Amino acid sequence: MFAALSEKHEHKKVLPDLEGAENGVVMRFAPNPSGPLHIGHARAAALNDAYIKQYGGRYILRIEDTDPKRVDPEAYEMVVEDLKWLGLGITDTVTQSDRLHLYYELCTQLIGRGGAYVCTCDNEQFKELKNKKIACPCRDQSVETNFVLWDKMLTHGFKEGEASVRIKTDLLHPDPAMRDFPAFRILDAPAHPKVIAHVYPLMNFSVVADDHLLGVTHVIRGKDHIANTRRQRYIYDHFGWKVPVYRHYGRMGIEGVVLSTSQMRLGINDGTYTGWDDIRLGTLRALARRGISPEAVRNAMLAIGIGDTDISFSWDNLYAENRKIVDPVANRYFFVADPVTIVIHAAPHLTTHALLHPADEKRGVRTLVFTGAVSIPAAELERKDRAMFRLKDLFNVTVERDRGRPHLTYAGDSLADARAAKAPIIQWLPVADQIPCTLRTQEGDIAGVCEPAVRSELGKVIQFERVGFVKIDAVNDSGIVAYYTHK
RNA sequence: GCUGCUAUAGUGUAGUCCGGCCAAUCAUGCGGGCCUUUCACGCCCGCGACUGGGGUUCGAAUCCCCAUAGCAGCACCA
User: Fold this and answer.
1) Which of A66, A138, A151, A243 is most exposed, with minimal Cβ within 10 Å?
2) Who contacts A340 (Cβ-Cβ below 8 Å, separation ≥6)?
3) ipTM of the complex
């Protein structure tokens, strides 16, 4: 019992401890609703989730849609679906466009505290002053003046670009990015799909407001936010609020798939990709379609952890995690790629049975009936050095070549003979009992045939013996469509 | 350029805070073997790393300095 306990404990402690998390945590995942979630999002989503499971607490999904230019109305639902698929313990969901009034209210307070001012300078002009560490004229306005201007902003008294609210920071800060950064701006167009608004908060303001309002204790996000964290501290200081604990993980390079939302959308629109779940894309729905399990994604992300070093994402590692999950459950079938029909001379007609899973007899068998001719992968027949092979679960076959043309003859049932001859054991299908199967891979389609029984595996991951794991994507009159998962 | 951050095998990761038990962990990958009616799974063996240079110390992957490399930010994006 002790052993079990300690083992469990060790297993849990894959991630480093979080400071001040002993009494539980409140954390959040805060995506932009611009498209479906991809592997990059999965890291933040899974890491936060793991800590909440470790320490207990609430997990807030906060949809950050304060920039109407970067909102895809369909993405709200996609994000929720994707997180549901990932299997996270989200406890609360908030959408920032529903909360504009809260941000306005807090901004009014902040102006009252002298922590922010309304700036009506030309943008370029302000930038120039900022770079010279000089205050713009608006900075010294009285609180009363700022209230008047803020009210004018909210009541459409300004047009886009004419006024913004800036946070007072340190104009002498060595990093220009810290100096009096903006908190609200005016946007005339495009219209926000969810709310009628004219004044929008910038990310740094709405994030602080919400993290405070929602009681967020710990924030885990990418290091691209390090500068934002520093900026946000100024807002916390103005309000006198408690600052959450931050962790910024390093950049994760992902090769082999498309991740850019705009590039994906472009490709979908021009027909390059079939949709958001096209397997050449790095979206979670594409992984799902290929037969990668959500648990494997989570495990792979946890194994990567929260290090601040830049890393390259390894598909091999993800596949290894997935194999652990999928191997025990995937039924086995034969798939013959690029099939050639062969006739085996002097062979008895017989019926054979093969296990659905080699480690679990209880799952049953599939039945294959041999009546003289079978399909095998063309590649197996092309090998000139091959004098014998064994049709798996059937019998041995000798190959003689007459001016390159193979002549195949039955060579007994003995498995021991096949072993002694080091004959490969290959998959095959009865000519009379097979259905077309297209195997889709990221590199392209492979035409082949498979066992008709595969029809019953729609939506599941199975293993095509000697080929790899595949997900059965479609079953229809013209046959089967399977997506290649991994070896 | 400015402001920061980081540097352990092919990849990911532990160890770094509080120097010795680290001739450096685990996983993945690769090579070999066993098992097996799959090139899967399982098991066994092997390969492979502390970025470089100084310094502190009896002792450095661990602390300090310099160099190099990589990354992030420098938006009225998130």
Assistant:
1) A151
2) A375, A376, A377, A378, A381
3) 0.93
